[in-house]
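Re: beginner question about structure tokens

> Can someone show what the tokenized structure looks like for a real chain? I only ever see the sequence side.

Sure, here's an example I had lying around. Input first:
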Amino acid sequence: MVEPIQGEGGIVVPPPGYLSRCAEICRRHDVLLIADEVQTGLGRTGRLLACEHDGVRPDGLILGKALGGGLLPVSAFLADRRVMDVFGPGDHGSTFGGNPLAAAVGTEVLALLAETRPWERAARLGTQLMETLRAAALPCVREVRGRGLLVGLALDPALADASEVVTQLLARGIATRDTHGNVIRLAPPLTIDEATLDEAARRILDTLRMLTPAGVDADVVRMQ
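And the corresponding structure tokens:
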């Protein structure tokens, strides 16, 4: 079981071919490859599913968050019949699993995604956002990484505190969160427009500039 892009691990994007190699090893040893796409799935990374970036069709797929369309909590496990048929009546139960309201909302969300294809905008705007953040070349930013509208700002902890940055951004109208200690996770709505995204990038960069001591040489601080 693997995340195509690590979320809580700090928005870590694997090298090209990583997932396809995982799939090859799993097939060779008759092991299921299950992709956890709760964070990356349904358009977030510039494809409907993040596995598609590597051309991989996993044996099992975990979805959630976006599947509810912002209306109610919904999650799902998807697999081919050869996997799902290992369960018989009474083998597996869930208090809320398969309830009609959740199924109706999830089905409608999938239909809406197929109609609007938000991953295409996510791919374009995500590239734009990351290019803007990289071009600023701030000393406190070690790396800008991600795919689509799932972006991680890896900060130098000697120059900026991620939790403090999150607090300052919230005061400026931008809800983010820190993860893996020193990474700021940016996951704007897939419906965000270009002007709003540009303004958000400006506020993020202004905030980071304010929190970085003036005249600090990042290389000197790291050596210390």
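Each token stands for a local structural state, so reading them left to right follows the chain. The mean pLDDT is 93.
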